[in-house]
Structure formats: C-alpha cells, structure tokens
Amino acid sequence: MSGAVPRPADRAEHTGRERPARGTRLAGTARRLLRGPRPESVPLLVGRACALVGLLDIAAGVFPRFRHSRMHALAEVLPGALGPFAAALALSAGVLLLLLAHGLKRGKRRAWRAAVALLPAGAVAQFAYRHSVVGVVISLLLLAVLLRHRGQFAALPDPRSRWRALANFVLMGAGSLLLGLVVVNAHPRLLVGDPSLADRLTHVLYGLFGFEGPLDYRGDTSWTVAFSLGALGLLTAVTTLYLAFRPEHPAARLTEDDERRLRALLARHGGRDSLGHFALRRDKAVVFSPSGKAAVTYRVVCGVMLASGDPIGDVEAWPGAIERFMDEARAHSWTPAVMGCSETGGHVWTRETGLDALELGDEAVVDVKDFSLAGRAMRNVRQMVKRIERAGYETRVRRVRDLGEAELDRIRRAADDWRGTDTERGFSMALGRVGDPADGDCLVATAHKADAEPGRHGDLKAVLHFVPWGADGVSLDLMRRDRSADPGMNEMLIVAALQAAPELGISRVSLNFAMFRAALARGEKIGAGPVLRAWRGLLIFLSRWFQIESLYKFNAKFRPRWEPRFVVYRASADLPRIGIAALQAEGFVNLALPLPPFLRRRRPAPLPCVHRTPEHTPAAPDTAVRAA
C-alpha cells in the first residue's frame, strides 16, 4: 500500500543506511569515553574542573574535619600538628587554583605548570585534614589529564604591567578578608564566649598579618584558624610582591622601523581606507605579511587582540598579514577581533579566518564636489555658520607643515586644556597626537576671534585636526573648542574645511563614525515595527553616556554618504568581552588601577588619544578655560 507506514527495516533500506546494532552503539560510546574530549576543548574543561577542585580545597581548609569519617582511624596515627598545617595548605592551594582557572581555560603554559605543582599539594592536604577520598581522586584525575594533554597548554604569557600588583592586592585582600570571616565563623561550637562582629573582623585582620586576635577556641582549633588566616595573608603578600617586582612586558609601541614601513605602505595604498593613517598610533603593535606588502596593527586589551580598520597595504597580500595576526592570537591564546573594518575588509577577514562579521555602524563621508550650503536641507547649518561669522569669528585651514612651532604648541596646549573628560579617548579613529613633524600632511582648521580679550591661548577658540586619507582625502581626528565660545564652532570649522578642500587638492572628507546608524534611521520612520522601535529606544537611552544619537544627528547635517563598518569576531559568546575591550581601548571604560608612587617607573608622557565626537562633556571647573 502506498500509504502504509514503513517498518524500521524498510526505513533503513529507504535511507540507504543500516541502523547500527545496540551493542555497536554502546561500543562506540565506550570508545569515545575512553578516547576523552577533543584536544581543543581540553583547556576549557580543565579550567572548569580546576575551579571545582579549588573550591573543594577551600572547603577542606575552612570546615572542620569529618569526625565520623571512615578514614578517621587512620588519621589518628598522623602527627597532631599536621591538622592546622594541612588546613592552611588546602586553603592556599584552593585559592591559587581558583586564580589559575582562567589561565588554564586560555591554555597558558605558566598556569599549567603552577596547577601541576598545586594539585598534588591540595590532594595531600585534603587527605590529611578532611580525609576526603573523593577530593583526592578528583585532584589526581585532573593532574593526569593535565599531564596527558600538556601540549594543549602552550600559550605564551600576556603583556603585563605593574598596576596588576595593586589590583591583586585590592582583590586578594578583599577576598582574604571575606574568606577569613568564613574561617572564623566555621567553628561556632568551639568558640569561647559570644564575640561581636567587630571582634571577629579584628581577629581576621590580626590573623592576616600573623598576629593573635581577640578570639579564642577550645582545643587545637585556635591553631587551625591562626594557620589558615596566616596562609591567606602570606598568599596575598607573596602574589602582590611577585607581580610588583617581576620583569615588566612593555605596552605595545610602534618602533621607528615599523612606522617607516607602515608609512611606505600608506604612501602606495593609503587611499583605500579612511582609517589607514590611524594605524600610525604609536601605542599599537604590528604584524606584517611574509612579503612585507601588508600589515595589521592591533592592541591587546583584556585578553582581546583588537585590530582596527582594514589591513594596511596591497589587498593581494592581506591574507598573509591576517594569517600572521591569527598565529599571534593563537600563540598567546588571545581572542581575535577587528573593529571598524570596511565591507571589503570584512569579506577578506571572514573568508581567510572563518570568523563572523556584524555591522557596527556607518562612517559619514562627504564628497567635496557635491557639498553646498544652498538648499532647504542645509538651512540650519547655513544659518548657524552665518550667525557665528557675524559674531566676529574667522577660520583658517592649513597643513601642519605650514604652521610654525609656536602656533603648533599653542594648538596642542589648547586641545589638551579643552578636553572634556579626564580620560583621553580614542583608538580606532584617533591618531593620538597633533603637530608631529612626521605628520606634515595633516590638516588643521582653527577658529579665531580677534576682537575678544586674549585668553590663555590668545584668540584661538576651536581646533579641528584631520589626518591624510590617501592623496586626495582627509579623515577627521580631533574636535576641540573653548567652552566659553559660541556654540556651533565645530559646524563652522567643518564647513570651512570642506570649502577650502578644493584648493588643497582634497576631494573627500571622512567625518565621525555613527554606531548603529541604520537602526536609528529606520526606527524613526513611519511603519517601523515594535522590535525596531524598542531597539532605537535602547540606543537613545544609551546615548546619555556614549553619544550614539548625537553623533548620528551631527553627521547627518552635512548630507554625507554612509559607508558601513563592521566588527569581526570569532563567536557570539566573545562579543561582550570584545565590547568591554573596545570601550576600554577607546577610553570610555578604565579598568586599570593607578599604581602607588613607589611602584611607578618614570616614563615619557603618554600619547594623547581622543575619540572623534562633536561635543565632549563640559570640562571640570578646575580645568576649564575662560576667555572673553
């Protein structure tokens, strides 16, 4: 019958495959279990297991021993003083294993070595103090896995700096204090009297420094608590001193040779990407293709190897530079990511690496030949510019090489004083310097008011800085203005730069980058769906801190064409981490704690790096510049 349901054997014949017998399936499952996990997944599994063993070790060191354990009779023959020492050892090993778990997940070689040394110590402590056979077996099994798959833990260490010592002291100190309170309160029946919370906290603080506190316990519990607290304090001190005095890996810096080679590539291929010149930031590192015809610049932030824009150089050589970039990421177990690449760059990155791409926003590009202040669409900009000109302001647009050193120094000081935030911003779309002799092709637009009372920076009221984009373009880098000046300075200077562009041989000008511009534009149109409207509402809410909507509206005033920009990433789970790294690189988030003076090393002044925004937040009163 045509409508009959086929029997299982018929279905097997229909599909051309025979269903494996149950015994065969069980044998295959057994073989997979014996073979173990895939090698590439071992670091993640081991890291999670290491965190579990660390928690078991901490529990073994904190809570009293099992008096009714079957192993208790055997423990009676051990030396009596071994209990307190074993508790402290278990506690220390557990804390260190928790700290090493993240490094093991990333396949770090040093974390593997430390875990191989700590796991046996934790196993001995668990057996001697808590008599936990299960904990010992888990520790030894994890040790066996580490030894068997040692080849998967070959990642090189990350660049490091001494601020990590202070971060370790603060975090380890707080954790030791909380864990010490747990240790003190883990023996309530043996505690003499009813001490207050202040007494317990005092006992913990004294114990962390190796002194006897106000609390007392019956039996040898006082020694157990004292050794445990002393171990926590010693662990905090030793790890902090190690991080403070170990050799420091310097931050990423372009060498003179790297910069020379990049400038040569930009001279031949710089017109391809408007962000190309920003690769010359001197706080980036660079990898070149084997032929030397292409390069990728990057910075490592929070374990993310963050590149920006397209690779520099010949498109045919991009795959070689991208391969070197990915090899470097694998060697250090960094998370690869690219911020702000073009559509062409996104295609090459995804094709060569198997990464994914997500549209991040749009770059505003103005074609000089099509720009005009005439027409209804430009009415607001036209009226604002005329109003400012009537107020007595004038503009000057010049190349950096045409400015004297005295005027360049005044522009640098003014740009620094007018910065609206305490933290310098910028990474992917900021050069980080103004007036460098090597950047003679950069463009500076300044606004002046001659009839005003001279201020700290004379008649200078606003500054715009553009970097070269090939031979016939510029890309906006920096926007600063005196807060006492009339509003609209930035609009007037952009118009002045666009009007002076033909005489300077400039045919295209790249303005700011507008994140999620398409969502904002579509969400405000009639007929937008509820999801799109909700997404736009969220972006407007976030604009209170990140200027998402204001950048879009500011760019739209000049009727630009929009060029999409993309973020390239490995997995969706990496996006939050990449976002935090990008915010930190751009200067919106600062996770680095300042070092105390005795740990600081004399260094040159940091290179300024700014985010391309039309208006920064108002400067603090003590840094604001007042001028008539």
SSE map:
Layout: H1 8-15, H2 22-35, H3 42-62, H4 72-75, H5 82-105, H6 109-130, H7 133-148, H8 163-185, H9 197-208, H10 221-245, H11 256-269, E1 285-288, E2 294-301, E3 304-308, E4 312-313, H12 318-332, E5 335-341, H13 343-353, E6 356-367, H14 379-390, E7 393-399, H15 405-417, E8 443-449, E9 460-468, E10 473-481, H16 489-500, E11 508-515, H17 517-523, H18 530-546, H19 548-556, E12 561-569, H20 575-586
Parallel strand pairs: 3-5, 10-11
Antiparallel strand pairs: 1-2, 2-3, 2-4, 5-12, 6-11, 6-12, 7-8, 8-9, 9-10
Helix pairs in contact: 3-5, 3-6, 3-7, 5-6, 5-10, 6-7, 8-9, 8-10, 12-13, 14-16, 17-18
Describe this structure in words.
- By secondary structure, the protein is an alpha+beta fold.
- It has 20 helices and twelve strands.
- The protein has helices at residues 8-15, 22-35, 42-62, 72-75, 82-105, 109-130, 133-148, 163-185, 197-208, 221-245, 256-269, 318-332, 343-353, 379-390, 405-417, 489-500, 517-523, 530-546, 548-556, 575-586; strands at 285-288, 294-301, 304-308, 312-313, 335-341, 356-367, 393-399, 443-449, 460-468, 473-481, 508-515, 561-569.
- Strands 1, 2, 3, 4, 5, 6, 7, 8, 9, 10, 11 and 12 form a twelve-stranded mixed β-sheet that branches.
